[in-house]
Amino acid sequence: MIVIVDERELVKEGYYSLFDREGVASAGFGSTEFGEWVTTVADEDLKSVRAFLIGECSTDIVSPHKIRDRTKAPVIALSEQHSLENTLKLFESGVDDVIRKPVHIREILARISAISRRAKEEANFVQIGAMRIFMDGRDPEIDGQPLPLPRRERRILEYLANNSGRRVTKTQVFNAIYGIFDDEVEENVVESHISKLRKKLREKIGFDPIDSKRFLGYRLII
């Protein structure tokens, strides 16, 4: 079943009809009724949801993070605003994909299948205590709340998490973040980035999860 969340009845009815033609069950909600439903529905019922499509609705009520607390089903935003700023804003809210309208219903189904397939093939995050580090460009979360980080610091954290606790050298971190052909930046900039990152993490989670050894490099404590 596909769950559509939109304030407009015509939109919900339209998607219901289109999915029905493809032999796919769907259900439509407004923001308020969806907010109540997703927090009270039985776990067994949630297992039948293949994906959530979020259209025009209240983002305060329909939060991708709240949805993900209950289920791992993909959350996809349907956007009518064709701007980079709006697309980035939607991704930052926690959705798995942004689809610009108009779009064929089969493309929506194909994207849902692709997201689900990737989720089964590999974990999308690393959990360290209250901190969740994503591998798709999203900011890490502390107790479910995003921790905004500058792009370099976020990529360093992702790189350390991708190495599953193994120690990596400063050169390895530099090459991963800046690229092996970048000769306009000094390698020592890595130390500055990591110093700032460690301070922010220590303030938010109460300890420093990055272990460093001189000449040996850095390791994320899993």
Structure overview:
This protein is α/β, with parallel strands linked by helices and 222 residues long. It has 2 domains: 120 residues, Rossmann fold (3-Layer(aba) Sandwich), CATH 3.40.50; 96 residues, Winged helix-like DNA-binding domain superfamily/Winged helix DNA-binding domain (Arc Repressor Mutant, subunit A, Orthogonal Bundle), CATH 1.10.10.10. 44% of the residues lie in helices and 18% in strands. The protein has 9 helices and 11 strands. A 5-stranded parallel β-sheet has the order 2-1-3-4-5, with helices on both faces. It has a 4-stranded antiparallel β-sheet with strand order 6-7-8-9, covered by helices on one side. Strand 8 and strand 9 form a beta hairpin. Helix 7 crosses helix 9. The longest helix has 17 residues. The two termini are 37 Å apart. The relative contact order is 0.09. This is DNA-binding response regulator, OmpR family, contains REC and winged-helix (WHTH) domain. Pfam families: Trans_reg_C (PF00486). Keywords: DNA-binding, Phosphoprotein, Transcription, Transcription regulation. One of its GO terms (molecular function) is transcription cis-regulatory region binding. One of its GO terms (cellular component) is cytosol.
The count of strands amounts to: 11
Output the structural class. alpha/beta
Write down the overall mean pLDDT: 87
Beta-strand content estimate: 15-25%
Broad shape: elongated
